[in-house]
Amino acid sequence: MIESAPVIQVLDESTVHLIAAGEVVDRPVSIVKELVENAIDAASSRITVEVSTAHGAISRIRITDDGVGIPSDQVSIAFLAHATSKIRTGDDLLSCRTLGFRGEALASIAAVSYVTMVTKPKESETAIRFRITGGEVVECAETGAPNGTSIMVEEVFFNTPARRKFLKSLQTEVTHITSLLESFACLYPGITFRYLVNGIEKYSTHGGSDLSDIFRALYPSEAGMMIPIRGEEGNTLVTGLISLPKLVKQNRQRFLIAVNGRLVQSPAMISAVKRAYGSLIPGNVWPVAVLMLEIPPAEVDANIHPTKREVRFSAERKILDLLVRTVRRALEDADLLDLPTEPDEDSQISLSDIPSPAPTPIRYGTMAAAPVARQVCEATLAGYRTTSRQLLQTRLQESVDEGLVRDERFPELFWIGQVGGTYIIASDKTGALFLIDQHAAHERVRYDKLKEQESLHLKTQELIAPVVLTLSPSEAGLIPSVLPVLSDEGFIIEPFGQDTWCVRGVPVVLGRYEDPETVREIIGTILSEDDGPVRLKEQVLRLVACRSAVKAGAVLTPEQGMDIITQLSQTADPWTCPHGRPTIISFSCQELSKMFKRV
User: Fold this and answer.
1) Sheet containing 433-437: which strands, arranged edge to edge?
2) For 92-110, what is each residue's pLDDT tens digit?
3) Alpha helices in 48-96 (DSSP H)
């Protein structure tokens, strides 16, 4: 039997709206983005965002502004697809400076939720209350209200239950909104933003502030490590803040790029900034940055995708080069010397530790640095104690260690020395040469020990002095969702006020003197991750292993070096660290002879 071809037909208007809404509104944060951008376009000086939750989901979103409002005879038109006051013809796209122009946001939001708008222009005596449900108008009447617009969105995706199933946890969805509003606050320091969740104010900013003030309010612990940038070429201007090399993140969550005030995603710009940092930061981390570019609208195409998060430039190479030069110049002008504030009382002072009378600040971009005083790594009492403690903590479970045996594939090695405070030099009975990365090797030992301790009850020790973490609102909002995983791994973390948490205990392998950056790094790494508990657990294990292992640069005694070699030989996979980097490389006598042209 031959099947007939399916009939082609035009979709009904309701289905068309649902499909279009899926391009613009895919989760609650998309609603907040579109409505806040509308409020900014309406010349608002104050914007309030209120989020309410119920039954494990976001139940209501309200955006209130004091902008120009919408005239009563245009309210219903505003909810029609492709209805906008921003442009009139296609030629207007070449000069449009507003965040919105496609006329899709209100229609898309109204297609998948219950929307109530109350709006009043300054020249009008009364406001209009307009209710629309699933694209159908329910109410349009006069009411009393202050100047501006208030939009309340309820029952999001009530008519598209499949979309609801793909939403992440409530905490994750709220954190996305929090992070977005932090971005808007940074990009528009002249606007007062107020953000509430279930009636509790998460933060508010003061309009008229500059970017540094906003950053200081949102991220107080990081503000002191940010430096301003400014670069200009022709009609293109770059301004913002970038972090000193000592402040980096494990993800791009705190890397903001705005083009003409619009938050965008641009891998090319991110690569340009990392290229400007060069070797100042590792390749697998990202600096903190707020980059604001002003470019003539005719040279930017923001009409690539309905969300307008992707843009194209007519002169991309020129813009990227300007970005690289601007960031490099800011780093060159900054003092990158990071001296300790107080000497360690356990440190053993040597002549090479005494600084010159007039130290020259470390500057980025010099072709060749002058010789510095410290040319040879020298052991200190404090460093010896730290390394001994770290090695001891991977031998805490004596009963377990007794059962460990050396991997037969692992050669029996003998200590020769250490180079650069980083690599152990060893040899075997055949005379082959072995180089061992001491940090990667001990990281593998730490990781295996953590995996080993998963079945043990005792893996937490209380800190002598609790560590208090002051976090950004988005970081603080994330902690409850990852707290079970952190607790399982041995962290004791308790709320300690607004956006503040107190760390009272850490995993045994971290030691008793851990600094706040370990927990901050763990939280920062998983901040934007939507993986399940198993994946988060693995991330925590790897980070704890890395931060608690013997560091590169630590001078070892022969006994400590052999201890690392012995412990590495007893691991299940001694050849790589948990991140996949090699721990040991070898050169046979024949290979060495070839290198020296002896054979």
Assistant:
1) 414-419, 423-427, 433-437, 584-587
2) 455 555 665 555 778 888 8
3) 75-78
Between residues 357 and 514, the one the model is more confident about: 514
Q: Is 337 helix (H, G, I), strand (E, B) or coil?
A: coil
Can you tell me which residue has the tokens 């704890």?
Answer: 544
Could you tell me which residues come within 8 angstroms of residue 539 by beta carbon, excluding any fewer than 6 positions away? 522, 525, 526, 529, 531
Type and span of the H or E element at 218: helix 211-218
Q: For residues 99 and 116, is the Cβ–Cβ distance under 8 A?
A: no
**pLDDT per residue as tens digits for the range 518-549:** 666 666 666 555 555 566 677 777 877 887 78
Q: How far apart are CA 596 and CA 594, in angstroms?
A: 5
Question: Which amino acid belongs to residue 31?
Answer: I
405 is written with which tokens? 């045996």
**458 in helix, strand or coil?**
coil
Edge to edge, the sheet with strand 226-233 lists 226-233, 236-243, 289-294, 255-259, 262-263
- In this structure, the strands spanning 584-587 and 286-287 are unpaired
What would the two tokens of residue 425 be? 């030099």
Residue pair 203/216 in contact (Cβ under 8 Å)? The answer is no
Q: DSSP assignment of 540-588, as one string? A: HHHHHHHHHSPPTT----HHHHHHHHHHHHTSS-TTB-TTS-BSEEEE-
pTM, entire model: 0.68
Nearest-5° Cα angle at 309, 304 to 310 = 45
Q: Give the DSSP H/E element, type plus range, for residue 423.
A: strand 423-427
State yes or no: pLDDT of 297 exceeds 80: yes
C-alpha 215, offset from chain centre: 15
Specify whether the CB–CB gap between 489 and 507 falls below 8 A. Answer: yes
What is the structure's pLDDT at 516? Answer: 65
Strands 492-495 and 500-507: antiparallel
Mean pLDDT score, 501-529: 67
Phi and psi at residue 250, to the nearest 5°: -85, -5
370/265: higher pLDDT: 265
- Closest alpha carbon to 110 in 50, 158, 54, 161: 158
Q: Which of 85, 82, 107, 104 is nearest to 96 (CA)?
A: 85
Structure tokens at 571: 């691991």
pLDDT, tens digit, 9 for 90 and up, residues 209-267: 889 999 988 888 888 899 999 999 999 999 999 999 888 887 787 899 998 888 888 88
pLDDT confidence tier of residue 80, bands split at 50, 70 and 90: confident
Q: Residue 596, class by beta-carbon neighbours within 10 Å (0-12 exposed, 13-18 middle, 19+ buried)?
A: exposed
Alpha helices in 95-135 (DSSP H): 105-111
- Of all residues in the chain, the percent with pLDDT exceeding 70 is 73
DSSP string, 227-256: EEEEEEETTEEEEEEEE-TT-EESSSTTEE
